[in-house]
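During the no-cost extension, the postdoctoral fellow (Dr. R.K.) reprocessed legacy sequence entries with the updated structure-token encoder. One reprocessed record is reproduced below for audit purposes.
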Amino acid sequence: MRKPTAKLFLSEIDTHHENPLAGGKLRAYILSQALFFDRLIIGDSQINNNFRLRALLWDAENSARVDSSPSDLWVLLRLGLLTPALRSGSGSLDELRREHHARGVANVPSPAFVEYVEEHLAGVREEYDIAKVSSLFKHRTLASLRDDAAIGRGRLSRDVRARVYDYVQNQPTLLYKTLRDWLDTQLSSGALAPRAARRIDRIVASAYRHNVAIAMHTNLDVPAPIGQRLSPVDLTLGDRRLVRRLREQKISSKAYDLPPTAVLSREFLNWMPASSLAAVTQLKSRAKVVRAMEAFRNGRVPNMPEFLASLEAYLFEVDYAVASHLTQKQATRFKDLKRRETARTQVNLIVEGTLTAVQFAFPALSAVAAIAQGLEATHMGYAALGDFRSPRALLLGGYILGRSIECERLLLDVVSGDERGTAS
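Re-encoded structure tokens follow.
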């Protein structure tokens, strides 16, 4: 197997979402991304403390089960498709588990679960600089407390903002739980109103998320929520020179249609055997598609006819490879699903303004994987969601993929003026 080059940090695994994915939805999300990347990365805290994910990795964690989704994602660990990123200086997931248990962190797993995960890891190690992540958390929290747009006009009094700001600024190392404990103390003493505490908690959660991905400078999928304006984490979408190259070659926006596919439907991904990915990862057509997508993210002009042919071949071969791993009952269910699946897979090449993207719209999955280039981070919340036939129209659901970076202007996951809180 070729050395992995296309890596994605899974943003939806983070435990600090207001409406986290669970069960079949979480499983479909992970497997759909696994089809298009060499390696999926999650934080060490997330694999340990996300009890919803634990239920999909090991059937002994059935207390968190929300539906009948299989607990077979341990296969992805063994294949090296899914791996935790360990903080620098930490020898193991169990070392982190003990440290979290001592500090009273919520949802710490059992020693047996951590042992189970470590037994199934494929010897792959990803690492991040914990000092860098802590610094980013503090920096982004302070930046959000200074930002009227992030907080919302009139949502917090100057006194409350000043007190929280001073507390954060005076922490040599800012820890999420320590900050939450301080907020609870302020709330119980009456120094902080419940409404203000909820607002601050949302801001802090927004500033906490994505810091591991930023520190690792890896690809990140930012949710594009239905019916909300998106203000995502700092994100670069590749080499802006690609826009010029496309225009020089007189390549413009165009929509392409591929045959319908059932393997990307959320219904199928809910119960697709994870073991089938062992065969999928060996497909030559997969290597072509994954390489082409990564090359585009790195600024190479796509050869769309060649790419579409590879993508169509890959989806066909995935269908065949997965079918060979199904039980008789699953095979009957799969055939029925394919008969019902008539929506075509749409692939859009978008060249508009400063945005260049290849956009995959799989209607059955209700998700869009946008692999984009040339869009300045400060415009992300507007242009990146625009359908090229109607730039002001927001796409329904899906993800925007780009490489996480640090930039001077912080874009936070807080919807301005919206009490629903985070955009993701």
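Residues 226-234, 363-397, 407-424 have pLDDT under 50 and may be disordered. Residues 7-87+89-128 form one domain. The remaining legacy entries will be reprocessed before the final report is submitted.
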